[in-house]
């Protein structure tokens, strides 16, 4: 069979590197080989992958996108490139919207021109966090930050046929996520303070990457919430990491968002956990977040 040609933007990011590895039939650090949401292992010759980093593919340049896709002729485009500096975005509004909103729309348009299915990855920050628990795909977005608003704008620029994957609190073995910061503090004998009034869904980069392989295969269209199973707070995440690394209850102290100093520029949703029932009704659920974080800690490079 002819391999499915997949173009991945943001391929140097923590999800991008894992997705490219999995599309090539490998298992990146932190991956669970037993997690196959569609029940089918990835063959080494199933996909032909073109992974492009930010400096190689300017998603804000309409003409460059059109030329690039015309040459590459992908069957599927997975759009991971994003402006993700949530607080900096409050001061850098134009640049944030250029990538997350305008760039997403241009890439959806360019994908349609070459007959490629377009997959855009979005965020729980499109919600205001006031629902109480478990946002579903049909809930009305109401972003409170520039970052969240730019991602919601990008979603609206996609075509009806596109697939939008919303995820949250992404952390991987590769890349500098909050878990690495917590683990470094735990290893050094230090302590940490984390908020206990922000609740959400942790997503391991490798597990999200494997879920995206399924999306690439099946091209479902529409909006899908994808995150690891279970809900937590940043404080409980920090306490779990500490326990995994042999630290006691004294390692992590709970504080409120109001006690953060300096105060973050961008508001965060108080509770933005994603209900993944739609995903689970069609494919296998992602593993529990504790399992994913344990794998991240197991495979993270020694410091």
Describe the 3D structure.
The protein has 303 residues and is α/β, with parallel strands linked by helices. It contains 10 helices and 12 strands. The chain has one domain (4-176, 201-230, 272-295): Rossmann fold (3-Layer(aba) Sandwich). The protein has helices spanning 14-23, 62-72, 86-89, 93-113, 146-156, 178-188, 205-218, 234-244, 277-282, 289-299, and strands at residues 4-9, 47-52, 76-79, 117-123, 163-167, 170-171, 192-195, 199-200, 203-204, 222-225, 232-233, 252-255. The chain has a 6-stranded parallel beta sheet with strand order 2-1-3-4-5-10, with helices on both faces. Strands 6-9 form a two-stranded parallel sheet. α6 (178-188) crosses α8 and α8 (234-244) packs across α10 (289-299). The longest helix is centred in the middle third of the chain and has 21 residues, at 93-113. 48% of the residues are buried. The model has no long low-confidence stretch (mean pLDDT 96).
Which helices and strands occur, and which strands form pairs?
Layout: E1 4-9, H1 14-23, E2 47-52, H2 62-72, E3 76-79, H3 86-89, H4 93-113, E4 117-123, H5 146-156, E5 163-167, E6 170-171, H6 178-188, E7 192-195, E8 199-200, E9 203-204, H7 205-218, E10 222-225, E11 232-233, H8 234-244, E12 252-255, H9 277-282, H10 289-299
Parallel strand pairs: 1-2, 1-3, 3-4, 4-5, 5-10, 6-9, 7-12
Antiparallel strand pairs: 8-11
Helix pairs in contact: 1-7, 2-4, 4-5, 6-8, 8-10
């Amino acid at each position: 069979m002819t391999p499915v040609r997949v173009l991945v933007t943001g391929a140097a990011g923590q999800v991008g590197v894992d997705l490219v590895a999995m599309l090539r039939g490998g298992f990146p650090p932190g991956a669970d080989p037993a997690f196959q949401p569609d029940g089918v292992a990835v063959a080494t010759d199933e996909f032909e992958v073109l992974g492009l980093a930010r400096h190689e593919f300017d998603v804000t340049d309409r003409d460059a996108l059109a030329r690039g896709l015309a040459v590459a002729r992908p069957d599927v485009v997975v759009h991971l490139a994003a402006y993700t500096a949530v607080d900096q975005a409050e001061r850098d509004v134009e640049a944030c919207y250029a990538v997350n909103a305008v760039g997403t729309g241009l890439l959806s348009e360019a994908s349609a021109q070459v007959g490629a299915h377009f997959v855009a990855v979005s965020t729980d920050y499109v919600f205001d966090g006031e629902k109480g628990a478990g946002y579903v795909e049909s809930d009305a977005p109401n972003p409170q930050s520039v970052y969240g608003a730019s991602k919601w704008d990008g979603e609206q620029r996609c075509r009806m046929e596109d697939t939008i994957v919303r995820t949250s609190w992404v952390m991987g073995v590769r890349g500098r996520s909050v878990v690495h910061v917590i683990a470094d503090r735990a290893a050094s004998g230090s302590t940490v303070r984390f908020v206990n009034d922000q609740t959400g869904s942790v997503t391991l980069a490798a597990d999200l990457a494997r879920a995206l392989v399924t999306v690439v295969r099946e091209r479902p269209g529409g909006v899908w919430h994808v995150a690891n199973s279970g809900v937590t707070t940043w404080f409980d995440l920090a306490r779990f990491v500490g326990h995994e690394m042999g630290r006691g209850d004294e390692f992590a102290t709970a504080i409120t968002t109001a006690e953060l100093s300096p105060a973050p520029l961008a508001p965060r949703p108080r509770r933005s956990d994603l209900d993944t029932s739609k995903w689970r009704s069609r494919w296998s659920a992602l593993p529990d977040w504790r399992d994913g974080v344990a794998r991240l800690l197991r495979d993270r490079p020694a410091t």
